Structure formats: structure tokens, C-alpha cells
Amino acid sequence: MLTIELNQSDVKALKAAVEQAGKNLDKELVTAINKTAKAGVGLMAKQIGKDLNLPQREIKKGIRVTKRANKGSKSGQVTLRESKRPGLQHFKARQTRVGVSYKLLKSEGSRSVKSAFMGPKPGVKAPKLYGGAFIRSGDSRLPIRKLHGISPWGLYVKKHMDDETKKKLSDRLSKEIQKRAGQALRGF
């Protein structure tokens, strides 16, 4: 959970603009906070996506606005849930002759797991395996175990992305408050 402080000079400018336009200061602050929280979801996903070779759609599954600002509470909260590691199929895995190749991080090259499989033959995925990559645990056909990649939550925590997120969201909140002040003065 991140805590972002309001810039008092921005709040004073908004208060002056709102009083001049005859609008409600609380409503304008709530709107700015909620818009910033909504933008925080995309910002966190983008930061994780810079390092992790995972589609934004998969990253955003674990990020939610868990608390919205209202009249009584002038705070919003964006949460990245602790998640299970997604299967290798989400990391552009593909069946090759020797096993399964995949790429976890954008800064690294492709890796491969020998003797892993994704389907009955290269290029064809078995529908009952849901596109997952598997490897046999022993010499016999069964049991098999699913192969997993890195979770977005784990990468976010390990790389300490909180500081960068906090700074960018603070800047975004300041811009939203200035935008609301400008709209109040223009009469929107």
C-alpha cells in the first residue's frame, strides 16, 4: 500500500478556483484522487511490464483499485495482490524439438527446458492441457508437473518498485488537481 501526500499549494490553488467558480472543493478533490488511483493501475502494470515478458492483460489481473475516495474519506488505494506464478504459456512459450522455449524477463534471452512438452507434437497444443507447459517427474508417463514463470507481485516486491510508483503517482495527483482547478475556472 502506498501513501501519497497532497501538495498543499495545489490544494490552495484548487480551493481558490473552486470558490471563484462556486463549486464544491470536496467533490473536486475526490474526483482528482479517484482519477489518480485509476491511472495507478496502468502505471503499476507498465512498470512491471518493463521488466517482465508478460502481456499487460495478465499483469492487470492482480492490480485493483481497492478503495475509492468519497465525501467522508479523501483517500484512494491501489493494490497489487500477491498472486500465484502464471504458467509458462503466458511467457511466449513454444514447443521445440528438444523441449519448450520461453522468455521470462525482457532483459534476458530465451531459455529452454529439455524434455518439456506443450502438446502432442510441436506446434499443436493439446486442448485438455489448456496451453500449459509440462514436464514428467519420473521415468514413467505420469506424474507430470506444470512449469511456471515469475509472478508480477514477486517481481514488484523484489525490484522495490514502490519508490518509483509513489513518485509518479504523486506527480499525477498534482497534475489532476491542477487540471480540476483549470476546469473550474473555465466553467466546465
Instruction: Count structural domains.
Output: 2
Total beta-strand segments: 7
What is the overall silhouette?
A: elongated
**Mean pLDDT across all residues, rounded?**
87
**Helix proportion of residues, in percent?**
40-55%
Going across the major beta sheet, what is the strand order?
3-4-5
- Uncertain stretches of 5 or more adjacent residues: none
Could you spell the SSE succession in H and E letters? HHHEEEEEEEHH
Describe the sheet with the most strands.
3 strands, antiparallel
What this model shows, in words?
This protein folds into two domains: 8-84 and 152-186, no CATH class; 88-146, no CATH class. By secondary structure, the protein is of the alpha+beta class. It is elongated, with a radius of gyration of 23 Å. Helix content is 41%, strand content 13%. It has five helices and seven strands; from the N terminus they run H-H-H-E-E-E-E-E-E-E-H-H. The model has no long low-confidence stretch (mean pLDDT 87). The longest helix is centred in the first third of the chain and has 27 residues, at 25-51.
